[in-house]
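[Q] Does anyone have a clean structure-token version of this?
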Amino acid sequence: MLTEERRKKIIEWLERDGVVKSQELIQWLDSSESTVRRDLHELEELGVLERVHGGAKRPQHLEQELGMVEKSSKNIQQKQLVAQYAAEQIAEGDVIYLDAGTTTSEMIPFLKNKTVTVVTNSVGLAARLVEAQIATIVLGGRIKLTTDAVIGSQALQQLTQYRFNKAFMGMNGVHLDSGYSTPDAEEAILKRAAIQQSEKAFVLVDHSKFNQTSFVSVAPLSAASILTDTCPLVIHDQITEQTTLKEVSV
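[A] Here you go.
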């Protein structure tokens, strides 16, 4: 089994059970003790797990997520800068997906003079879009109260019926090795589907999200272009230290 496959399975088992034992991993992965030990060490370095005696556990901080009120007060100017640039990528007549999030929410004022149709999984964004007289479709399903995101199988089924010219996504973590990630498994499923249903996907993040890994993997970095204020990230073995807005395709 390839290294990437082994580590993906370890993360999946951690997501499911919260704890994994080294001896079980050796058996399940049909790998040596040294290989499993090395995998756990590397995943711990990425912040994906915490090693404990006899195995590893899911780190609590990966599941923690601030509510919308706390998020909206952080890095406001940077989010507005990213949002304005993101809106400039939209052409007249586009059908776009706006993911639930504070940075995607900042795009709405820049959409007022555009002829677009917006699909969103955010109750809060939908209300603001309607107020701005923008054609809007909101996904149906269960509402996650901390982020006002609509999640669940009903939302996913509806989402997969649509195709988008562009999708604009929020993320909690952007890491060269672990890709895009978020704390909630159900939100991750919707984010992944929205990216797959789009001709082009953009991830909107400020600099604080770089080199961070959250609990659930969404997609590799190559699945979307990154729109950000600065980019302290290793791209193709080069360090990019930007002080102006940057679009990064990996």
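[Q] Thanks! Anything notable?
[A] Confidence is low (pLDDT under 50) at residues 66-74, 232-244.
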